[in-house]
Amino acid sequence: MRRWRDGLHDLSRRLVEIRSRVEERLSEALRPENGFPESLREAMLYSLLAPGKRLRPALVVLAAEACGREGADLWPAACAVEMIHAYSLIHDDLPAMDDDDLRRGLPTCHKKFGEALAILAGDALQTMAFQVLAEGYPPATAAACCKTLARAAGPAGMIGGQVDDMAWCATAVSAVRKVQSPNTAETAVAHGLDGKLEALERLHARKTGALMRASLVLGALAAYAPESPPPETLERLDGYGWRLGLAFQITDDLLDVEGSADQTGKRVGKDAARGKLTYPGLLGVPESRRRAERLCREAREQLAPLGPAAGQLLALASFVLERDR
After folding, report:
1. Residue-wise pLDDT tens digits, 178-217
2. Of 59, 134, 238, 276, which sees the most CB atoms within 10 A?
3. What is the domain-level CATH number for residue 24?
4. Residue 280: which domain range?
């Protein structure tokens, strides 16, 4: 137990260091002399540098370290994935989407700057992410990074997941209300919701998991540049990312049920109010927690062949289970 706690403590210090470094680089990318309209730059910085975990940039860095390669420039990839994440949050919070007024403990971008400028700030961050990759790496690596990130963020990935999420709000409420207090996976199956659980996992594999998986692949691509990473390494990282992404979403759903706005930096209880299908809504809290624990255990098993270099990715799976925001 002590060794496990020590590993989490070391990881926490590493995450603070990564967060500091990536925020420096993000600030540099949005310097005033880069020619952006000042109102646009202000809105981009507001969302990009709002207090956050910087988990996806950390995945880039820790994946590169797991590859056992030193001296690579990881920061273009780390910044690019955080730009995509920030853009997605701006757009998800809009009235036409999730209609949120609080994000990372602050008013959402459209509440602060208006809808039009918020949309444009999101658009600018999305396109700038690919510019950062194209300028940051040799041509072959840059192309592979852009392809990886575009697939993860595009219609078959994050955006497709958001479309599914909105569709579920409109169609899933009546099915869920037929079940009174589902507390276990067996209850869900008994009421014909097992298919909905599978669909929910597909949704979040796109909406949340795809960008996490891409972050890990970007880390490997950057680590091996200008060469290509070994396919077996990419396969291991991808298997880890798939499971970690689902576990992360389950804990997010649990925080919406059990957490507070002060803890999470955003409104809680909103998923149930909107009729969203969530893991606790389908399985109940205890079974959702067990599922997250199993996914994290399986994620760690994926990394075993990478050896000690993957130690902090192993610890990250435990960190995801224990997070409170």
Report:
1. 443 444 444 444 445 567 788 888 888 998 899 999 999 9
2. 59
3. 1.10.600.10
4. 2-322
